[in-house]
Amino acid sequence: MTGAAPLTEIWRGPLAESRHSGHAVICDARGEIVEAWGNPEEPVLPRSSAKMIQALPLVESGAAAKHGLSAERLALACASHNGAAIHTERVNTWLAELGLSDGDFRCGPQMPDDEEARVGLIRAHEEPCQVHNNCSGKHAGFLTLARHLGAGPEYVEADHPVQKACLAAFEEVTGEASPGYGIDGCSAPNFITTVHGMARAMARFATAKEGADARQGAQHRLWQAMVAHPELVAGEGRACTELMRACTEPVALKTGAEGFFIAILPSREMGISLKVADGATRAAECTISALLVRLGVLDPLHPAARRFLNAPIYNRRGIETGRIRPAEGLL
User: Fold this and answer.
1) Segment (H or E) for 37
2) What one-character-per-residue DSSP string does 292-323 give?
3) Does the structure show a pLDDT above 90 at 1?
4) Helices in 150-194 by DSSP H: which ranges?
5) Which of 79, 192, 244, 274 could make an SS bond with 24 (beta carbons 3.0 to 4.6 A apart)?
6) Does residue 40 contact residue 184 with C-beta atoms inside 8 Å?
7) Using one digit for the tens of pLDDT, what is the confidence trace for 211-253?
């Protein structure tokens, strides 16, 4: 057992003014640790970084095929989206095809992060709906699975068949029994595992072969959907979207609240998970960028990489005062 390791530093002039520590693991095709920082066995809540695992029952149950879910909808099922029109219009269409409405969601309303959508609501004197919630795509997937299973409407309850299926998938792909859960921002259970467990799960997604079996087929379809539609997984300007576009080979990326991040690298048959101990998003984005550079799938000079890796900090007059950069030894 080891403590958190330095991951990201905030420099101002000649001084490292702040430091973010945490835990990170890179796993190979067998789920074994290739490299690690901090404590691989640190218990964590992966938050939204687990969405592709939560979408596994949707695909492997046959619900996705029965309802003709496209790659776009599978990407939305894995998304923490900005609530832009490209997200909400697609989720609303999906919901309507199920014969359901916004009131059937259990994720709660959220003011969209997308500026155009947010300003549009304010100017129209309208309140946000649940479809604006960044998790509405995941919840549309939950509702689709609930319909397929003939289960009741309270699909976020831990003892609901949807969440039982999510827990079973979660424990199988992480290779660990989950000791419990916390309630996520969207009201669904978020199951506990370790940093190693999440990296192992992502490596299993990376090694999944289409048609091998239902589980591998589902994993393969989900990471491919994410890579094919990075704009639906997050949105313009977001690290997930920008870095997936920037990588030199297919890489699926997904952030999670409180400083979590994962990567699925199919060409390398590797998985990455990381958790920043203090929950800082800026540190998680810098750290995942550094690890992608370390593995040779991201050019550090790419404009998208430079937004998160060695990112400049400006003051209110536009003067560069410092940088967000990876800790020594991470690259």
Assistant:
1) strand 33-37
2) HHHTTSS-TTSHHHHHHSSEEEE-TTS-EEEE
3) no
4) 161-174
5) 274
6) no
7) 889 999 999 999 999 999 999 999 999 999 999 999 999 999 9
Residue type, 245: R
Q: What letters, b where the CB count within 10 A reaches 16 and e where it falls short, cover 223-240? A: bbbbbbbbbbbbbeebbb
Rounded Cα distance, 305 and 289, in Å: 7
- Residue 15 identity (one-letter amino acid): L
Structure tokens at 159: 């003892």
pLDDT of residue 2: 82
Secondary structure string (H, E, C) spanning 79-148: CCCCCCHHHHHHHHHHHHHCCCCHHHCCCCCCCCCCHHHHHHHHHCCCCCCHHHCCCHHHHHHHHHHHHH
Task: Provide the sign of the torsion angle of the four alpha carbons 252, 239, 310, 11, taken in this order.
Answer: negative
Both tokens of 166, joined, read 């999510």
Count of residues in the chain: 331
Task: Give the burial class of 217: count Cβ atoms within 10 A of its Cβ; 0-12 exposed, 13-18 middle, 19 or more buried.
Answer: middle
**Three-point CA angle 227, 231, 236, nearest 5°:** 135
Q: Which amino acid is at 4?
A: A
pTM > 0.70: yes or no: yes
The neighbour count for residue 82, using CB atoms within 10 Å, is: 26
Please give the average per-residue pLDDT across 129-142, as a whole number. Answer: 98
